[in-house]
Amino acid sequence: MPRHEFRPGRLILGTVMLATAVLFAGDAADEWQTPWYVVIPLLCGGLGLAGLASWVAYEVRRRRRDASQASADSSGVPASTSGSHAIR
Predict the structure, then answer these.
(1) Are 23 and 34 in contact (CB under 8 A)?
(2) CA-CA distance, 15 to 27, in Å (whole number)?
(3) Is the pTM of the predicted complex or chain greater than 0.85?
(4) What is the pLDDT of residues 24-56, one digit of tens each?
(5) What single string gives the DSSP state of each residue in 69-88?
(6) 22: Cβ–Cβ under 8 A, 6 or more apart, which residues?
(7) What whole-number distance in Å separates Cα of residue 74 and Cα of residue 3?
(8) Which residue ranges are recorded for the region named Disordered (predicted)?
(9) Cα–Cα distance for residue pair 85/7, rounded to 1 Å
(10) Which one, of 42, 39, 53, lies nearest residue 10 by Cα?
(11) E runs forming strands in the chain
């Protein structure tokens, strides 16, 4: 069992931020010219993609959890015949 669940949105956002840092580091080192306005579509696109990936991963986890709970709840005994509410 893994220590924590996989979060693809964080992975995507981290990659986009790292790419932005590399672009501006190359510009600062005079390796290439990076216009200042490149960061806006790069970060907005990365945030949108990370949000979409996080939403999809959440839906997958929720459906798996619901499916496993539904199969575990069916013990074969109706709830009304067990406990203090049983008809005598």
Answers:
(1) yes
(2) 18
(3) no
(4) 999 999 999 999 899 999 999 999 999 999 999
(5) HHHHH--SS-GGGSSTT---
(6) none
(7) 29
(8) 66-88
(9) 44
(10) 53
(11) none
